[in-house]
Amino acid sequence: MKIIIAGAYDIGTHLAKLLSRNNQDxxxxxxxxxxxxxxxSEYDLMTxxxxxxxxxxxxxxxxxKVDLFIAVTPDENLNMNSCIIAHxxxxxxxxxxxxxxxxxxxxxxxxxxxxxxxxLIYPEMLAAKNIINGMxxxxxxxxxxxxxxxxVMLGIKLHETCDILNRPLKDVCxxxxxxxxxxxxxxxxxxxxxxxxxxxxxDLVYFITTKNFIPYIRKIVGKEHYVxxxxxxxxxxxxxxxxxxxMLPEYMEAKIIEQDPARCEYLNNVVDTDQVMVLNGDGRxxxxxxxxSIKNTQAFVATTGSTETxxxxxxxxxxxxxxxxxxxxxxxxxxxxxxxxxxxxxxNKKILAASHIYQMMLDADVQNIRFLMNANAxxxxxxxxxxxxxxxxxxxxxxxxxxxTIGGLVRNGVGQLVSGATQIEGGDIVVVYCHDVNLKKIxxxxx
Length: 447
Prior knowledge:
Number of helices: 15
Helix content: 25-40%
């Protein structure tokens, strides 16, 4: 697949990293020569130092023959214009990063498709969805509902209260158990577990189960004492905070703490003031947090533009008794450090945007893909085609590449876990966890 990426910023460079793992034919265009030099030294791709809205540049880059043209510069107008030009030259699909939430309204999509922009990506909205999902269960680091909740993937940090520590998985994760463990993140290592592997304290473990067994998972990991999130404090009143406030479930209430008085006035005009209270102040001010009853708050979300501030604020909130903390970590170099500090859920909107775009490179009938930055892995939903390799043998005889494991499948809308004896059928939507493996190799099993 031939792909052009316009913009050598965080989203573009992370996309280059993801795509280069699968040996794609990638061209990266940017006006900053230094940014291009940094990327080309790490990844196998071609770079062009020029404006992505230059018609000659796009023609010379082969935009007329690309399968996917991705514009992810910080300039919304530049992204849309370059997509329109690339489409006119013959690009099969185009994606533009935008900053205006009004543009992603469903009724606008057909209009932009007629212009030549197939998909619009608004990173702040993706981040807000991730934050809300992270707060729905205070005891879970990450939650992903697969096909409207037919299956659920839970990323859970294990502590000494967990009932299944230090025992071989073949004894605690038998075919009779209503869950499947697809991966373990232990310090800097990602493990695709076998029957002899054991869970250890402070492991981040990825479970796949069905919705009705979530309480059972909560019990065995020793998280029943975690209270559900009803009251939330959000530090920082930027775009992500606004989107998150608009997505709050009805049973949650929030306080947004923002330093800028003018921004506070704006927030009061755009959020539901019956559900969200806007406070003018500094979210790092412990006395303010105490005055606003942080000890009765179940979740603290730090969304300022400063990664350091967000991490420190979450650490402070934890010391004040908040169980669930969520930090926006925009500096990629800080992600591992933030994880090691055990601050809670980490959200990086650029990685979320890159992961969202990443699925468009796949040829098979892929419903969804999620890049798990903590585990450096992908969770992918493949639709098994009738007669494909995956449907000819039972799971234990498929010989999937090392680093890939099947977590579950959805058949006729009903989720079910997978064992070695499971027979995949045509039309099944199969959830595959992939660590350090070329997704193209996995695709061949399902098409």
